[in-house]
Amino acid sequence: MQDTRFSRAAASLLFIIGVSFQSSQLSAEGALALGLPSSVANEGFAFGYSVRSDTSDEAQESALHLCRTDKAGSAPGQKLCRIVKTFSGKCVAIAMDPKAGTPGVGWSVDVDLAGAEARAMSQCKATAGADREGFCVIDKSDCDQ
Fold first, then answer.
1. Would 71 be classed as within a structural domain?
2. How far is CA 100 from CA 42, 92, 140, in A?
3. For residues 117-143, average pLDDT
4. Domain around 64
5. 26, 57, 71, 72: least surrounded by Cβ within 10 Å?
6. What is the pLDDT of residue 16?
7. How far apart are CA 57 and CA 87, in angstroms?
8. Which strands form 137-143's sheet, in the order they lie side by side?
9. Residues 6+ apart with CB under 8 A from 118
């Protein structure tokens, strides 16, 4: 009888540990940082994001670091980097018009990659202007899951 109680207790403990481990693995944290000057066309921009971090603080720290050191980002943009969104279990996308001196830029965090990319592209096209909206492309995208 005692062996049975011990076995049940051990099995319950292992189950709880397993569920805890799975939950922590599934609840990755993400953050998006952007540096947007008043004129993206004249001053460019910078961005950084982090996905699959253990904590929100780690995600934010990483996203800010990446934004401030974004090799393709502009110096004015890097100086303005701020966290604009934190998330968990979602996807992030950045779209832009790759031609220098153009205003087209968009970003999004959504429940899936297709949604994030679609919203980022829509935002890019809206800021690019009618003559440049067809040049918007997804620059980066990733998911936190």
1. yes
2. 9, 23, 17
3. 97
4. 28-143
5. 71
6. 43
7. 11
8. 105-110, 91-96, 137-143
9. 108, 110
Kind plus residue range of the DSSP H or E element containing 41: helix 40-43
Residue 22: inside a domain, yes or no? no
Tally of domains within the chain: 1
Pull the structure tokens for residue 73. Answer: 């980002």
pLDDT at 76 over 80: yes
Give the residue from 137, 90, 94, 95 showing the smallest Cα distance to 113. Answer: 90
**Strands, E, within the chain: which ranges?**
29-35, 46-53, 82-88, 91-96, 105-110, 137-143
Average pLDDT of span 106-114: 98
57-65 contact pairs (CB < 8 A, 24+): 58/29, 59/29, 59/30, 59/31, 59/86, 60/31, 60/33, 60/86, 62/31, 63/30, 63/31, 63/32, 63/33, 64/31, 64/33
94, two tokens: 């950045």
